[in-house]
């Protein structure tokens, strides 16, 4: 099942209902998807031996479908790029259709299995790897993806590439985390925004001593593998070795889980997830949350205006590595317009396409970070100060593992990590059990 590695941009306007967050609805849909995956697996695996769909006349008028996982506002931003492509190629029309995160994986898997459906898809960073292994995706290396690799964030690109080197999808956008804080509460406790693990725990203690009842909380990744991810890599560890062997039996993994769990067990981080801007608004001094809340705090929480700031997450002993989420976009092998679809994917990396998407995202007040790091600050939907924080996070970031079996393992790995926080297991046992899950699903 898919790991919840991407949080869709959120529309940030007063009273708006947030789009689905992949760290919760994806978990809720795993059980539903499991039955479909088991039933379809044998048939799906057989697709890799099928011949490629007969291609249509490239000179004839063509209408391509693009199934975009996310919300309607995101679909509208990508449609701007599709319309711009149509202006340059009048014979080609690309229609972008919304798939909600709650059922996107199941629908895309069904399309991959039946070899019918869209020409272009987007979804979680590792989804195209899974569909490609089933013969349902085009290897974009045959269509110039190397040119895009040079423009993308290396760590995110690696997450989208199959272990055998096939490129069934390329990064479509990025998301990351930051430490948001209440400037008034930190000033009250005479605390500077923490830059290290040690400074973070010291700041929590000082805030408590100053009478701040809610010093710290986590939003994206709370009690989940994404939350642990930051500490694991900041300690110098990783989920897998370079050759995709589970790598949780290390001192670094133990150090990371101990430090992360202690934020809950010793320092009082709430196990209940509170949305980042809500946490700040109700008196939490520091909160780890995604980039999608930055644009809306002043709009949705007017009482906080002038009372909050943001910075990169505190760094661990091995450095400041922060989780990078995002979506991948790829071309289905059953499309009649493979060449055109692949050309559109390449077009989405151009300056003009990114500018069109960014402009529409800004109008809709949603948080879009392009797949090209050089475009994060210049022309960003964020303020210059916010963009610089996200640029710094992404520059040292890492994306979710692209190893076989990770998507099937993620939710069970999270349960083992949670067991330490909830006092049901010790660090070594939980990591050993998590590694067993990863090994079992590696095939």
From TrEMBL:
Note the superkingdom of the native organism.
Answer: Bacteria
Q: Which Pfam family, an example, fits this chain?
A: SBP_bac_1
| Listed Basic and acidic residues bias regions | 9-26
Segment Disordered: which positions?
1-26
Alphabetical list of InterPro entries matching this protein: Bact_solute-bd_prot1 (IPR050490), SBP (IPR006059)
**Classification via SUPFAM superfamilies:** Periplasmic binding protein-like II (SSF53850)
Q: Which PANTHER family match?
A: ARABINOSE-BINDING PROTEIN-RELATED, DIACETYLCHITOBIOSE BINDING PROTEIN DASA
Q: What is this protein called?
A: Extracellular solute-binding protein
From which organism does this entry originate?
A: Nonomuraea phyllanthi
